[in-house]
Structure formats: C-alpha cells, structure tokens
C-alpha cells in the first residue's frame, strides 16, 4: 500500500479528505494526520510516507517551507499541495519542492482523485525501477561479481534471510513444442503470485528458466500451491529449492546452497519443494552396497522376484540417503548388469533378449534408472525360470526312467531325488502331476504289472516276489490282491 499523510490545521478539512476520497481503491492508506508543519516533519521521519497532502496556509511554518525540510531526508516523497485562490500564484511559483499537483479549494473529488492516481503511478514506476536495480546488484553479489560487503547497502544484516529458487522444469519442453510463450507466462505468473502472497521480498532472474527470491526471516509460505498453479495454468512443472535462514552477509553461500539443492531432483524427482533440512553426507564405504548387489544376483539365479525387488529398493535408498554421485550410481548399475549377464552365460542361460534393454549413459532422474534396471532384472528372472523349467522337465523324465529301471530294488523317493538333483518334496509333487499317482503307488503298479507277465509264464510265487522286489511271497500276495482285487494263483490259470 502507498502510505499517505494529510497535513492541515483545520480538523474538518483533514477528516473530509480521509473520508470522502476512495483511498483503498487507489491502493493507498492514510497512515497519519498532522495539524501543523512541525508535527508533519516528525511524522514523516517516523513512518516514511510516499505521499504528503498539505495545505499551504498554516501557522508558524507554511506548507512550502515544511516540504523543503522534509525533502532533505525524504527526497522521493511526493507532495500534493492544497491552496486557496489568493495563494495560487505563490504556490505555483514554489517549484523547488517539485510538487506533483496543486489543488484549488474547494476540493473537487474527481480532480483530487486524479492527482492521487498520478502520484501513485509515478511512485510505482520509481519503486519498480529502484527495486530492479537493487535486485540486479544483489544477484551480482550472489554470483561473486560484487563484494559481499555491499549487501549492507540493501539488506539488514541484523535480520536473517533465505534464498528460494523456482526452476522451470518444462523450459526445454515448451521450446521443443514451439510454445516459447509459455516460458514468458511462467515468469509473469510467478511474479504475480509472489506479489499477492509474500509481503517483503527481492526477486531476481539468474536464468531464463529460473526465478530467485530473497526472503526476510523464516516466513511460512506454502510453495506447493504455486507448483499446483503452474501445472493448472500452463501445464508446466516447477521445482522449488529453499535454503535455511542465514545472515545476509552469507547471501552468496545461501545462493550456492539453493542451486545445489536442485541437484536432488535426480534422487527425488521434479515438481517438488526441496528444502535444506540436513547436510549432505558423503558415503565412502561401499561394503554394504556390494553385499546388496551380490544378494540381488543370487536372488535372480533363485528366480526370487520378491526378495530381488526388496534388495533393489534398499540399494536405491542408500543411493538417495547418502546422495551418491550420479555418475557413480550409473557405473554401479552398469557393472551389476554385466555381472548378471556373466552369471547367466556361465550357466548356459540365454541372454539374447536382455540385449534389447538399453540403459542410457545419463539420466535426469534416478527413478528412471531404477525402472530400467527392474525391467532388465524381471526379464533375467524370466529367463532363469524358463531355463529351470526346461531343466526340471528333463529331470522329471530322468527320474521316471530311474524308477522304471530300478522299481524292483529297495529304492526310496530320497534315492530317486538325489539321483537327479531335485528337491524331494518338489519331485513328489511333479511325479504325481505327471503320472497321476504318487511315488509308492507307481512302484506298486510297475511291480504288479511285471508280476502278471511272470505269472503267465508259470513262475513260482516266491520267484516272482523276489524278481519284482518283494522280500517274501506273502507281502507280494497282499500287494497283488490290493492292486488287482484278485489272488496271484488265479492269474496262473488264466
């Protein structure tokens, strides 16, 4: 708001100006009244008004002399002088105070309002020009092009400041899509939002795709609202980095920190508010990461997707928590992929389809690298499962052949499983699925079918029992009847 002081020795004149003029509509606020020049001078020192509306004819010191004295310490204040007909020529001649306008009594509201609006417009232009010069010099200080000590000329060193950088992440996208006008809108939207939502600030534009703010103190501002507004208004993405508060003399360092915070986009993604919450750690011990990488390879060979995914999440959490350098992360991921390929090739597992997944040499966001690695690992696990499936099919066939060759011996499921290097429980399930019956039932089936052939050749029961793997003929007879529903001797007759 533009600050206004009214100076007049007549009470009703002062109150009339305060009440009948639409000050608020003109972005003005009457901050004080004075009945004489002395009061006005002291009031001006206290509140630093932008406009002083004064009558000329006052006791002791007139309005012209008062204006000259105030100009000595407030050179940019604007005066609007109120004068009667008898004083008009005298007032017009007092050009040394550079009054913007002279209003004849009785005051006409439209004329007076026009004079105020003219003063407001001039003040705004001057402030914008002055502020622009200050902001350019502050940027020069932050960049190290001007001595940091010069910050005393603009910022109160007794107060803390923080730096905010608003980055237009859609800048290149808008250019590629021939929508450069949206980059211009980006700047105007940001400045308008800042003007409406932040009371005291300096704004600077270090690059075409970035706007910076210097804020006094630790103001609580919800910048997420601004992120949503940019997305809604121009379908753009912005990332905002905010430093902690620090003394103004550290402005150059705060600017450096704000720029460094933007590097966290690689880890946390774009379109966020990145605040300086803790110092970045340097992680020099790679033992934990190497153990996780080894575990990932082992779980791939075990075709364990769930555990593999868990290990990948843990690995990338370390990358993010300790801010491992991007080039180091990419190097580690490339090495992991090469190790996976080597292990698969050593086991004669195909890697042809893995060559279709190409990793980039550079990534804007770590999540994209993680997604590509997960795609590669999912495909590698699929290859392992396919290989194991083929291997297990072959092993089941070899297990059945082993049973067929040795059914008349004292074999167990454990013996068969060991012969083909399969898990006993797994073998039991697969045999039942392939044969339709369990292991023991299949052994009995083979023995009884073979005994029927021997019965037809008139061999004795004792001989047959021993031939097909039973310890005596009574055990043989029991199993024969259980399987066929008849006794062996009846098959001899047949």
UniProtKB/TrEMBL annotation:
Residues 397-494 form the HTH araC/xylS-type domain. It holds the Pfam family Response_reg. InterPro entries: CheY-like_superfamily (IPR011006), Homeodomain-like_sf (IPR009057), HptR (IPR051552), HTH_AraC (IPR018060), Sig_transdc_resp-reg_receiver (IPR001789). PROSITE patterns: HTH_ARAC_FAMILY_2, RESPONSE_REGULATORY. It comes from the Bacteria. Keywords: Cytoplasm, DNA-binding, Phosphoprotein, Transcription, Transcription regulation, Two-component regulatory system. GO terms for biological process: phosphorelay signal transduction system. GO terms for molecular function: DNA-binding transcription factor activity; sequence-specific DNA binding. It is found in: Cytoplasm. Residues 3-120 form the Response regulatory domain. The modification 4-aspartylphosphate is found at residue 55. GO terms for cellular component: cytoplasm. May play the central regulatory role in sporulation. It may be an element of the effector pathway responsible for the activation of sporulation genes in response to nutritional stress. Spo0A may act in concert with spo0H (a sigma factor) to control the expression of some genes that are critical to the sporulation process. This is Stage 0 sporulation protein A homolog.
